[in-house]
Amino acid sequence: MVVWHRIRKDFPVLDQLYEGKILIYFDSACMSLKPKQVWETIEYYYRYLGACGGAGRSTHSLGTETSLLAEEARDKVAKFINAKDSREIIWTRNATEGLNIAANSISITKNQNIVTTSLEHHSGMLPFYERAKKVGSEFRIVNASKDGRFDLSDFEKKIDDNTRIVSLVHASNVTGTIAPLKEIIEIAHEHNALVISDEAQYAPHAPLDVKKLDVDIAVLSMHKACGPSGMGVLYGKYDLLEEMDMFFVGGDVIEDVVYKDGKIIPKYLPPPHKFEAGLQNYAGMMGVGAAVDYLMNIGMEEVHNREQSLLRKLLRGMLDLEGIEIIGSTELKNRAALVSFRPKSDVVSHNDVSMYMNDMLPQHRIMMRAGNHCVHPFAYSIGMNPGKGEGSVRASLYIYNTFDEIEVFLGALEDFLRTIG
Ligand SMILES: Cc1ncc(COP(=O)(O)O)c(C=O)c1O
């Protein structure tokens, strides 16, 4: 049994009074808070190791321990997402870097096309858009409905035998909707297209099984999963990683660089190292290892169920309030634990709501994100105009949030709406 108030104690950041007020953190979709197990692990690296890892390089004691711990962390991530082999796990700085590597390292010709959706985060859309532009391939967009859902028949229409890549977000960071990824992968694979899934908002919150999904590439944002900032992961099927080009080159990715007759002949290492140029963030890797240990100790099924109960209270409470528009679906089914909304008002904006919550409450600071959450195309598709500063506020939940916090938030939102009439 998970004792949730003890879990919360692992996040001492929530114990402080910030300028005299209690903190309520509703911005985990942007970045999660970090449990002490993670920063204690990072401290271990800096206090006792501080050296570089990397096979066959600094083979002294500190280097060897660093390498072993970093590789152990890779094994833990492989287990976390049920990858077949740890060599399928590439360290990145964030999900964006993983998406850029995928977009630029998969071979594609101008006769082929890339399919993506209107609900993508800019990080899941722009790398593919730019690659398509460079190569001259067609860039196709499947439109999400106004409530952020997909119709599988739209994928059937857009994906054909010339589709090389299908890139899509598993859980939306604006609407929270969960895409029917398994079914989309099946459609794509019937046409031999590769599927890249953006797991930034899914993997931290529910069990992810890349083998069962049969996804070709998945990118994760480990800083949203209790991990250190500046850490992400790219998972890829090993054969595909072998086939893909390097993205960054330099030190640490090569077996040898022969110099003969005035020419160089580089020989690159196999995956995962061929994608990890230069010295790495060893402290970050170990911190990610501690983060996935932490989440797996709780159990991802437990994490998911807890968040769904919190979400139920949040969404039901918000649906009872007049004066706000919820962006995307108002249903609980197939939804990540976040709600984006804006006041129905000509006088106040989404920014006013977030400022009120952070600065104006007598005893609390409720921290949320306001803006368009890096998903402008979807905003335009539902009639909002990010160019004119229109946007929404997002309340996003994680394992350390409580029902009491949701109560405080709903009360504060009701007060805010009352004061603006
Ligand atoms: C759905 C989605 N994809 C990609 C990203 C980018 O993640 P990162 O900051 O790790 O690059 C985010 C970040 O919020 C996101 O929500």
Automatic annotation (TrEMBL):
Transmembrane segments: none annotated. It catalyses: (sulfur carrier)-H + L-cysteine = (sulfur carrier)-SH + L-alanine. GO terms for biological process: cysteine metabolic process. Keywords: Pyridoxal phosphate, Transferase. Its cofactor is pyridoxal 5'-phosphate. The keyword Manganese does not apply. PANTHER family: CYSTEINE DESULFURASE, CYSTEINE DESULFURASE 1, CHLOROPLASTIC. This is cysteine desulfurase.
